[in-house]
């Protein structure tokens, strides 16, 4: 299923076009010009992007591209072409070369309305919202809406939809000391994050709009989006904020950083509680009361560190794909193939690194740079020389070691005479980074086969190294099966995509195969849930209403009123 061509490929395509004969077009339909032979010929030499029927004057454009007016302030008949999200599979199909072509309207005004109208968009390649319309602040398709609710109501709705569910999720992770960095969760969460990437769901929703398949993908997005901190994003009603498309995309930074900031804040409170600050002790008294009745032993520092490691993985993916979305660009050409400029993919009214893009670009590049350090640190940390370097600068504190143990404690470390495999923990953040960037800047026909080859290489590494410790060896086999299910999904999806692109039909086999394999993580989580219930992690506390130790410490022991809290 085509998303868009890489910008570099579009540049090469445009630059290789032969010069046009600017002949009189008085008697030919729009988009056509009269050739030297006297025929009305397609007015563009964008081979494989635009196709023309010289007899009927019908023009078609490849479904992953858009043709719109350049700017209302310039010549209204001046048209531009570029890869475009908002026109995916919208319009009437027409015959063309290899691929699905969408019929172009007879004139530019009708073409703009045909392409952008259903999304309430306008401007160059549908990059901007119509007057008094706003991009929904918490959705996948970036459609523009006219909302009746006031600004305060919409802000409250956004906070309720985007921040309340992560807060409850974080509370459960901390209270029940759940570590999602353990081998049983490691890969399956990565698969869920990949399947629910907004960059892919936006395209899928465009292609399957109004069909049963779209309902299925919304179901998958609702279930798996939890691991991208996108709770119910596919089904939340429109929320209008006075922000443009890029600013709405940048809002994902807030939901990605929020749980991490909340954990840091809570850790500061616990530290103050440990030092016996009475206002903080009184503030946390209800938490202690709940902890005493739900857990026999609640090691709050360990819980917070494990939770921080968990949300590092969940937020890492969101930070990376948001940064890539803010940077991905396209090369726009006019109808004759001449270069117009570099503009952003999600908002083609904004020039790449222009004044309105520069602040967001700086943030995005900075976030990606910091994100690259995380897998690098995981690779270097097991090395003795790196450990000595950290010790020299007093950076290898017990807290840092505990934090790194969350990621690398399950891997072999030569104590059993085997390979040093702790660096293997960097594979999963690296895959998150690759998955976020690769799909955003490449064509699907390139991404999926090459990504499948990369997965085969990872499987070979697991088979050869068996990276997990002996007590977790079963998860070496589980991960191999999960990786194979991902390759099976890619095969089914490619069958569906190629058939849809070439013949405008959706083969049942491709849908069934990809549907079965995309549900593999759900089946795996059901098994884990059954195991979790069997293990009964929720235990009664030591307190009762008759024995009400209101000053229990977080570790579950009564406090001496004359001493500080010992966590």
From TrEMBL:
Keywords: Membrane, Signal, Transmembrane, Transmembrane helix. The keyword Transmembrane helix applies. The keyword Signal applies. Residues 1-23 form the signal peptide. The chain crosses the membrane at residues 155-176, 207-227, 247-270, 303-321, 360-381, 421-440, 446-468, 480-499, 511-533. This is Uncharacterized protein. It comes from Geodia barretti.
């Amino acid at each position: 299923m085509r998303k868009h061509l890489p910008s570099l490929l579009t540049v090469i395509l445009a630059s290789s076009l032969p010069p046009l004969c600017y002949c009189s077009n008085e008697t030919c339909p729009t988009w056509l010009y009269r050739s030297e032979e006297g025929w009305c010929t397609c007015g563009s030499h964008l081979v494989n992007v635009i196709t023309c029927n010289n007899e009927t004057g019908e023009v078609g454009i490849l479904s992953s591209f858009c043709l719109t007016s350049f700017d209302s302030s310039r010549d209204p008949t001046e048209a531009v072409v570029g890869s475009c999200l908002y026109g995916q599979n919208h319009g009437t199909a027409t015959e063309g070369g290899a691929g699905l072509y969408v019929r172009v309207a007879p004139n530019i005004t009708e073409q703009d309305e045909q392409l952008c109208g259903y999304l309430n968009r306008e401007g160059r390649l549908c990059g901007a919202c119509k007057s008094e319309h706003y991009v929904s602040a918490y959705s996948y398709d970036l459609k523009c809406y006219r909302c009746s609710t006031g600004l305060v109501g919409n802000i409250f709705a956004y906070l309720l939809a985007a921040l309340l569910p992560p807060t409850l999720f974080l509370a459960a992770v901390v209270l029940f000391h759940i570590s999602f960095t353990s081998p049983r969760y490691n890969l399956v969460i990565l698969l869920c994050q990949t399947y629910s990437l907004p960059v892919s769901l936006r395209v899928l929703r465009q292609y399957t709009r109004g069909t049963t398949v779209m309902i299925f993908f919304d179901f998958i997005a609702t279930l798996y989006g939890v691991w991208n901190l996108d709770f119910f994003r596919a089904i939340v009603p429109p929320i209008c904020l006075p922000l443009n498309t890029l600013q709405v995309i940048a809002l994902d930074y807030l939901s990605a950083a929020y749980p991490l900031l909340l954990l840091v804040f809570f850790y500061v409170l616990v530290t103050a509680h440990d030092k016996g600050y009475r206002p903080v002790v009184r503030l946390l008294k209800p938490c202690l009361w709940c902890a005493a009745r739900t857990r026999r032993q609640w090691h709050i520092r360990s819980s917070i560190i494990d939770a921080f490691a968990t949300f590092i993985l969940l937020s890492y993916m969101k930070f990376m794909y948001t940064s890539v979305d803010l940077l991905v660009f396209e090369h726009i050409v006019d109808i004759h193939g001449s270069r117009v400029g570099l503009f952003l993919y999600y908002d083609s009214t904004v020039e790449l690194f222009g004044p309105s893009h520069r602040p967001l670009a700086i943030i995005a590049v900075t976030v990606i740079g910091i994100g690259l350090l995380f897998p690098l640190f995981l690779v270097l940390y097991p090395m003795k020389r790196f450990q000595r370097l950290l010790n020299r600068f007093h950076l290898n504190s017990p807290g840092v070691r505990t934090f790194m143990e969350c990621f690398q404690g399950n891997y072999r470390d030569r104590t059993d005479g085997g390979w040093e495999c702790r660096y293997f923990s960097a594979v999963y953040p690296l895959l998150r980074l690759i998955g976020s960037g690769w799909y955003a800047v490449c064509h699907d026909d390139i991404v999926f086969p090459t990504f499948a080859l990369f997965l085969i290489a990872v499987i070979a590494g697991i088979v050869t190294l068996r990276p997990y410790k002996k007590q977790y060896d079963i998860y070496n086999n589980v991960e191999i099966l999960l990786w194979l299910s991902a390759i099976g999904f890619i095969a089914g999806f490619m069958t569906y995509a190629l058939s849809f692109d070439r013949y405008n039909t959706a083969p049942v086999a491709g849908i069934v195969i990809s549907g079965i394999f995309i549900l593999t993580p759900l089946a795996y989580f059901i098994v884990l849930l059954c195991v979790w219930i069997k293990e009964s992690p929720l235990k009664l506390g030591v307190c009762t209403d008759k024995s009400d130790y209101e000053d229990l410490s977080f570790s579950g022991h009564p406090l001496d009123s004359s001493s500080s809290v010992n966590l």
